[in-house]
Model the fold of this input.
Amino acid sequence: MPQMKKQKSGSIINISSGTWLMGVPYLLDYVTTKAAVVGLTRALAREIGEHNIRVNAISPGFTLTEASKTLKSTPPGLAQMLADQTCLKRNQQPEDLVGACVFLASDDSNFISGQLLNVDGGWAMH
Done:
């Protein structure tokens, strides 16, 4: 942030999660911290906006990463069940987040700040 203030521009992109939009049970700590990321995003956007620094968050859905594929506590069939709950009927891949990140980092979003961009294939709608 100091360099962004010095250059009078910048974009901070935080990563939240769709779990807090849906109120996913049994993940209380995770859901709570991901909701806090949105609060942090909005408060920080107001705090440093005068320096022409934009602060936004992306809210991904369940993403098939190496970590999510190897979770020992994942019930069988969970990935397919979650894919079936999305409008696009497939699981999110890490590369599905790239376009949203590039957009929020680019000048094409130079008047967007304090926002949550939900990128989850239509799982959680708000």
Observations:
- Residues 28-48 form the longest helix (21 residues).
- The first strand starts at residue 10 and ends at 15.
